Amino acid sequence: MVCNFGASPRLSFERSGRIRSIAACKRSFVPPLGRTYRHMNTPLPPVIVTIPREAVESRNAFPVVDVLESWIPELCERNRNRVQFQILGYDEDSRELYDIPEVREYYRELYNRHPGLFYWIDTRSYMLVFLGLMFYPPVRRDGKVSLFGDDLLAYLRLGFYGLKIFCARHNLPIEPQRMPFSPASISLTHPYNRTRASDDLSSTIIKDRNEQLQRDRYSFHLR
């Protein structure tokens, strides 16, 4: 199912190959939360925000910012901690995305324009580590990718600082219990050691980009 909303930027909402009317799409766009997911105690599927290579090369983060801010306030609760960003157009590039300078610069620009990324990103997925790799150098060991300990601490501080600004700006609850770690454990005196990778996230593997394409998910395409 493909439906387009607006012209600038143009978003398409996909779930299958069949095309229905706009009216049908709007009816199915927000399924009833109580019975469809919460009643079944089933996590909502991720919301995929795709970013074309042209936007990355021009460091144009505004289309993504427009999408995220369009969810405020009606879809804040529904889309919180569900977003996964997918960069398009680099399939022929042998480098990993976090090794490409313009990709790293793009995510930094995105954070500068919209500091509340910790509010949206799917912390159950690769996104938590992947976003950190956009700000700090990757550490590779045993086929896994992680961050140095003090880099991880700095990244979490940055993320929570942006989350605090975002929630205060839009009068939203921070709810730190939604995160897979406690903000109270992040302090200036935390005994992290840069000589080794952090054990907190070192078990997280950044998988092949093709494995990010999962079945039964919602996608927002920016063109």
Description:
- The chain has a 5-stranded mixed β-sheet with strand order 1-2-7-3-4.
- It folds into 2 domains: 1-30, no CATH class; 33-222, no CATH class.
- It has 9 helices and 7 strands, in the order ββααβαααβαααββαβ.
- The chain is 35% helix and 13% strand.
- The chain has helices at 22-29, 33-38, 53-57, 62-70, 76-79, 101-113, 117-120, 127-133, 149-170, and strands spanning 2-5, 11-14, 47-51, 83-87, 139-141, 144-146, 218-222.
- By secondary structure, the protein is of the alpha/beta class.
- The two termini are 17 Å apart.
Tell me the number of helical segments per DSSP (H or I, 4 or more residues long): 9
Overall residue-averaged pLDDT value: 73
- Rg, Cα atoms, Å: 18 Å
Content of β-strand: 5-15%
Number of strands: 7
Structural class by sheet pairing and helices: alpha/beta
Largest sheet: 5 strands, mixed
Which range best describes the helical content: under 10%, 10-25%, 25-40%, 40-55%, 55-70% or over 70%? Answer: 25-40%
Count of the separate structural domains: 2
Spatial sequence of strands, sheet with the most strands: 1-2-7-3-4
- The poorly predicted ranges are 1-36, 185-223
End-to-end distance, in Å? 17 Å
- The rough form would be described as globular
Taken in chain order, the helices and strands follow as EEHHEHHHEHHHEEHE
